[in-house]
Amino acid sequence: MSYPALVEPADELSIDEVRRYSRHLIIPDVGMTGQKRLKNAKVLVIGAGGLGSPALLYLAAAGVGTLGIAEFDEVDESNLQRQVIHGVSDIGKAKGLSAKESIAEINPYVNVVLHEERLDNDNVMSVFEGYDLIVDGTDNFATRYMVNDAAYFLGIPYVWGSIYRFDGQASVFAPTLTDDAPCYRCLYPEPPPPGMVPSCAEGGVLGVLCASIGSIQVNEAIKLLTGIGEPLVGKLMIYDALEMEYRKLKVRKDPNCALCGDHPTVTGLIDYDAFCGALSNEAAEAAAGATISVTQLEHMLKEREEGTRDFVLVDVREPNEYEINKIPGSVLIPKGDFLNGSALEKLPADKQIVMHCKSGVRSAETLAIVKGAGYADAVHVGGGVVAWVNQIDPSQPSY
Ligand SMILES: [Zn+2]
Description:
The chain is built from 18 helices and 13 strands. It is α/β, with parallel strands linked by helices. A hairpin with a 4-residue loop joins strand 7 (235-240) and strand 8 (245-250). The radius of gyration is 24 Å and the shape is elongated. The two termini are 43 Å apart. It binds zinc ion (ZN). Zinc ion is lined by residues 182-183, 185-186, 254, 257, 259-260.
C-alpha cells in the first residue's frame, strides 16, 4: 500500500539544483515534483552515530532541504570504524558539528539544524515539532520508547532502525498515518529485562551493518516524503548479514497497545529510565552500599600487593573485551558463567570478591548473584574499566 506524500513540493529548483539532482529527475517516479518535495522536507535524524552517519550522508546527498540532527556526544576514535560521517580530524569535536561540516561538503543546499542537548522529556516535544519525518538511530531502549511516544503524540511518522553484531532491523512507525498502522510499542510492548541485552558498546557491531540498515532507513524516508512505493508501515525488515538474508514480517497494530490501542494507558510522556530500568531491582539492591570507586580499588590493589589485604578481582566481561584492556590483577569470569552457576565453583569461599565490568551494569547484576550465594562482603566497581582507563591508567585503549 502506498501513502500520500508527506511533503508538498517546493516552488522551484534552481538550475544548479536541476544539474545536481539530474539522476533523480530522470526517474519517472521521483521526477521534478518528487525532488521539489525533498527540497521542502524537514527531517530530524536522532543520533549522528552508527545509523545516523550513513542516514545523514544520503539524506543530504538526496537533497532533503532541512536536516535536523539531535546529538549531544563527541567524536571518539572508536566511532570511526562505522560512523563514516566523522573523520580523524573530528576526534574530540561535537558530533553534531562534525556531521554538519561533512554535510556542507556534500550538499551546500541543505539547511542543517543542530539540537545538541540530550533528548529528554522536557525538550523532546519542542525538538520534534515542525519536522515532517524522524529517522531514529538511537541505541538505547529508554530513548527509543520516548521517541515512539513523542512522535505519536505529535503525529509525526518515523523510520526506526537497530543494529547488533551482524543483525539489523528496520521499520516505519506511523500510527497517525492510517488507522491500522502499528507503533513501536505494538511490536515491542515491553523493553527487554535490564542486563539481558547488551548495548552496541558491549556487544559490538559490524561497521558496514550500519550502512545496510541506515540506507534502508533513508530509502523509506524518501518514499514517505515523496509518496512513492510501499513503505515498511506494518512491516518489520530483518537482515542477517552472515546468512545474507532479508526477511519481511508483518507487524499488526495491537488493540491492547498501551499507546495507540483502544484503551491507552500511556497518555503522556512517562519515566523512560524507570520503564527500561538501567539496572534490575535485584542489581540495584545489591549495588547499594556495595559499590567502590576505581580510586578505592587502586588503593586496595596496593594493599593486596603489600600483603595487608586479600581479595579476588573478577572481570565479568567477555574474553574479546578483556583483550582490549584490563585492570591488572583481575581474573576473567564472564557474566554468563554467573548466570549458569559455573562461576561460583571457581570463587574461593574465604576471600572477599570484587567484581567489575565495562561500566558497572553487568557487574551489578553478577554482584546480586554472588551476594545471593553468601558472599555478603562482595562489592563491585562503579564505572568499571572505563573509569579505570579514564582516571587511573590512560595508557590503555578505551572501546
Ligand atoms: Zn502501538
